[in-house]
Automatic annotation (TrEMBL), chains A, B:
Domain of life per record: Bacteria
Domain Nudix hydrolase positions: 13-135
Official protein name in the record: NUDIX domain-containing protein
Entry-linked Gene3D superfamilies: Nucleoside Triphosphate Pyrophosphohydrolase, Winged helix-like DNA-binding domain superfamily/Winged helix DNA-binding domain
Amino acid sequence: MLNNYNTEDKVLLSVDCIIFGFDNEGLKILLIKRDFEPEKGKWSLMGGFLKKSESLNGAAIRVLNRYTGLQDIYMEQLYAYSEVDRDPVDRTISVAFYALINIENHNTALIQDHEAEWFSISKMPKLIFDHNEMVAHAIRRLRYRTSTKPVGFELLPEKFTMRQLLELYEAILDKELDKRNFISKINSLDILVKLNEKDMLSSRKGSYLYMFDKEKYDAKLLNHFVLNL
Amino acid sequence: MLNNYNTEDKVLLSVDCIIFGFDNEGLKILLIKRDFEPEKGKWSLMGGFLKKSESLNGAAIRVLNRYTGLQDIYMEQLYAYSEVDRDPVDRTISVAFYALINIENHNTALIQDHEAEWFSISKMPKLIFDHNEMVAHAIRRLRYRTSTKPVGFELLPEKFTMRQLLELYEAILDKELDKRNFISKINSLDILVKLNEKDMLSSRKGSYLYMFDKEKYDAKLLNHFVLNL
DNA sequence: ACAAAAGTGTTCATGCTACACCCATGC
DNA sequence: GCATGGGTGTAGCATGAACACTTTTGT
């Protein structure tokens, strides 16, 4: 009887993923129509139950892959939601994760199969259970993370213009930023490579493309920086 | 069969509490000798299993009360630890919380009953499982929280001197602070009341006692501030 | 008188903010 | 030649950092 915890309650544990994407319309979140009861047909975060053989991170990666086909995605654990009545069917504790993906990369067929849709964060529908609270929390965390880690690049294509980067940060922080100040702050971090290549789609003059230089970033042992925008 | 999740795995969920206290020797953590197998007799965080009828917060409050006799304590959820083999006995996911208590207030009899002891954070023993990792995480979070919320006051007696406050912040941040700069930054937040009362124990001259003014703080709708020390 | 901690302001350097004009190109 | 977005620098201001001496009082 010593080597177990038999008298203790066991519960269901799930993960829910807040998946952020960014396109020229702004910051978006990927939602699905829930395909099982209860609340079938309502908008919901992507989730799944934890299996005994995987960690929470593993479960979140599995869920994300199932709905987007993506792997090797930036993902961070947010918070555990545990109100007793949060799921009306059975006692379920859910651990929320948020993920940042390049919106161009995901598998659109998979998205359609699951009746998933991208929503602007400013036009989110009502979600099931406490999912709206999770989303609000994720947005707060993303805003904070922006000032301590170069997470923005996760949401952009590999090559991007300064304007795209600026608009991304404006979308995340929900405020206008001064173009010149923004660029000089980004440049002072010294973690971008300017390419000899221009994006000619957005203007006649064309604007230089940049890439995030992960090696340079790692080389500085910058496990965090401070970026005040 | 629709209104349940019968086919899903259920797991054990526990909470572990990192309890911080502060005295004139520095920042401390309350640990217990684990009183059941496995790892019985080893140093451990205070923990307990989640019951079906309570939230994680509820469980953490219950555990904290059981070991310290305290209620209405500042507490914050940290992170969910879920490596598959983190507990050798049974699959257990643990959600860590940290709490800040006034070290003078707790019930010393209870502490003795449980063979609990205060350890300086610089002299922590090896703990069971992944508890050392939890502690490291809690210290990081506390350092960050210090710059966004007036959490320091939770660790001090109701009335305290500027020197105590300074030494507390030095202990949390693990660096020396300039006395004059510190005091003027704290004063500029305008959330303290200076009392007409001196602490005569620490010097011949005596030093004024202060209290945290929660009403003033709330009145400013300061859900967070920035304090760069 | 002296020891021990309390209390108190100023200067300097840095970083942040605000702000406007020329450039290159396709049409 | 003009319309469109791209790209660039500076001056004023606010904040943070560094720094030393006087006060009080019990012994």
